[in-house]
Amino acid sequence: MILGLLKADITEIQVDAIVNAANTSLLGGGGVDGAIHRKGGKAILEECIQIRNKQGGCKTGEAVITTAGNLPSKYVIHTVGPVWNGDKDEKSKLLANCYQNSLNLAVENGIKTIAFPNISTGIYHFPKDKAAQIAVKAVKDFQRIAEIEKILFVCFDDENYQIYKEILGIENK
Ligand code: ADP
Hints:
Elements: E1 2-7, E2 17-22, H1 31-40, H2 42-55, E3 63-67, E4 75-80, H3 88-108, E5 113-116, H4 128-141, E6 150-155, H5 158-168
Parallel strand pairs: 1-6, 2-4, 2-5, 5-6
Antiparallel strand pairs: 3-4
Helix pairs in contact: 3-4, 4-5
Keywords: Hydrolase
Enzyme class: hydrolase
Pfam family, one: Macro
């Protein structure tokens, strides 16, 4: 497995699956969720509504999969990150679950390449440094990692990008 880092807009990444930092309604929202639904078109929302009708949305830490509409990826894996408040240990566990459950869904669907945004570090206010540590550890601890070829962390803001560079040991040029 190759672990990569990019500073980019995740809606432009060509991988088997991009991950969406969704909310429990699965009906779209702001941030990366808004960008994915806007660029992906209504096919994604229609599938999200079907999932919602069947299982009532998506719980925090869990993940669901749809096709990717007009996006260059094949699938979108929608996972719901925790809002940073209340029990910090519980929130950390839930954030790790987002990465692990997304990777589980990826393996179940034969996905070999996957790109993650920095889940919960926008509107949900999870501390960026802590979130990055959890994300990298969750990915490295994933049991079926050998079945995935490439995992990309896609940072949108420079602060997250610098944090990931440091954690992944990438030199500043
Ligand atoms: P959350 O509600 O989980 O915090 P947000 O979408 O508000 O979700 O933010 C999660 C992360 O996604 C933030 O670090 C934000 O900078 C980033 N982000 C926003 N738009 C994009 C995009 N188009 N591509 C990749 N990352 C994005």
